[in-house]
Amino acid sequence: MKAIHKTEKLNLRASESRYRRLFEAAKDGILILDAASEKVMDVNPFLEDMLGYNHKEIIGKKLWEIGAFKDIEASKAAFAELQQTGYVRYEDLPLVTKDGREIAVEFVSNAYLVDGNNVVQCNIRDITIRKDAERAIHKSEENALMESEERYKIAVEHSNDGVAIVCEDKHVFVNKKFLEMFGYEKPEEIIGKTHSIVVHPDDCQRVINFNKKRQREEAVPSAYEMKCIKKTGEAIYVEVYATNMTFYGKQASLAYLRDITERKNREEELSESTDKIMQAKLEWEALVDSLHELVFLLDDKCCIIRTNLTVTKWGLGQPADMRGQTLHNILHPSCKQASCYLKSFISGSMEDLEAGNQKKSGQRTMVLKKTRIF
Q: Model-level pTM greater than 0.85?
């Protein structure tokens, strides 16, 4: 059992470390909120830089108490919707940074369970450059588009996203990032070609249908993912944001593309790792529940986190009833002795854990010890 417990601890630490690295290195802003208190539990460095607020100015605040989210009623309504549906998405949410700049962001929130607690993860992406470019394009008529081309071309050419304009079923414009993403050197290699030059056959017909419907101004998703192919034949995954526009008097689709291959690979690795950890956890719990001895898992305040099914056989109650209670109160419910040997034993055991305490990123990790009472 000790070997299983040690393996589980190592797996959990590895998973936590991997998550923390991904969380802190992410190029999108991320907020983690407690669904019950509605307060921010964690924020990554990218969002701090985006909004201009430091860690202390965000942690412990409700979403609408952070200056950037100044529309209190809208924020509260969004949070209420999230609690009901488990998912909220805003494709164009206006925010104000600490220094007063207005930015546009894409805001996606998901609710999920962590150790029995409801947690909300908010992913926030700065789309200000993209929205500025869209506004410039939509406002331009055919002649105005030609005259203002140089002004917005600079923003498009320096965008971190690939940009393409498709008229009917052919590319009529691509930026440098688009060429770089798919391994081409010159726009002439793409201009005049259909979707099939970059979209993988698995997704090509779906993308063609989206494009046709969009240009007919029919309802179609503005954001989706697709499988693509580079010039070398290598398959990649791309996130697409598309909208309508007029290009020299004709209906066209304006698309922004971002390579998400690395993210998809990380998600797959994390999913596999999570499955293995959950399997190990289930196996460990099954083993503990099969023991005849009474087993308690305590937190650093000597409160019970979990107990095995033997607690029922001993007539002490159900495992769920034990959570949050102290071991002493369960085993010595009528004890009034200040020098009770059980209290001393538990206190001494918890002191032994100090050697296993770790501190990282302002969070304290407690290595828990199983206490058996025979």
A: no
